[in-house]
């Protein structure tokens, strides 16, 4: 089964212009075209796009994503390179998650602080900052 660029855009929530850009940049070298030169995406292309979006979400640059796909095309001789690439990306992603968890703790602190302040009608609630700091920020 094949899909049009519009169907893929809707299915994966990726803009048509982004899909065209990925193709132009060589990130989708295996996308087939109809006799009228229209892109015809298949399940393999969908998986490639999901991987691109995954790696982009973790902060990988498009040039590095392209290198990964080039290694895939080269075959088994690049397994070690691909493995190392994903180990590095995993480590970077875990650090990002840790930073986001710290940010979320601070946001949760502020949400609770303002919820209570709203109930009391003031931000000057004795001991509130210390209590909430212990609850939300001391563990981070």
Automatic annotation (TrEMBL):
GO MF terms held by the record: DNA binding; DNA-binding transcription factor activity
HTH merR-type domain boundaries: 2-71
Keyword Secreted: no
PROSITE patterns in UniProt: HTH_MERR_1 (PS00552), HTH_MERR_2 (PS50937)
Coiled coil: 83-110
Keywords: Coiled coil, DNA-binding
Domain of life: Bacteria
InterPro entries xrefs: DNA-bd_dom_put_sf, MerR-type_HTH_dom, MerR_fam
PANTHER family for this protein: REDOX-CYCLING DRUG-SENSING TRANSCRIPTIONAL ACTIVATOR SOXR, TRANSCRIPTIONAL REGULATOR, MERR FAMILY
UniProt name for this protein: MerR family transcriptional regulator
Native organism taxonomy: Bacteria, Bacillati, Bacillota, Clostridia, Lachnospirales
């Amino acid at each position: 089964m094949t899909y049009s660029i519009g169907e893929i855009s809707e299915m994966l929530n990726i803009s048509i212009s982004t899909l065209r850009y990925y193709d132009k940049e060589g990130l989708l070298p295996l996308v087939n075209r109809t006799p009228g030169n229209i892109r015809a995406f298949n399940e393999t292309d969908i998986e490639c796009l999901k991987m691109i979006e995954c790696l982009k979400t973790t902060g990988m640059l498009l040039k590095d994503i392209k290198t990964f796909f080039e290694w895939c095309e080269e075959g088994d001789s690049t397994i070690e390179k691909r493995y190392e690439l994903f180990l590095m990306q995993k480590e970077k992603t875990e650090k990002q998650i840790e930073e986001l968890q710290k940010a979320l703790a601070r946001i949760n602190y502020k949400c609770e602080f303002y919820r209570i302040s709203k109930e009391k009608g003031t931000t000057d609630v004795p001991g509130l900052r210390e209590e909430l700091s212990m609850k939300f920020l001391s563990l981070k």
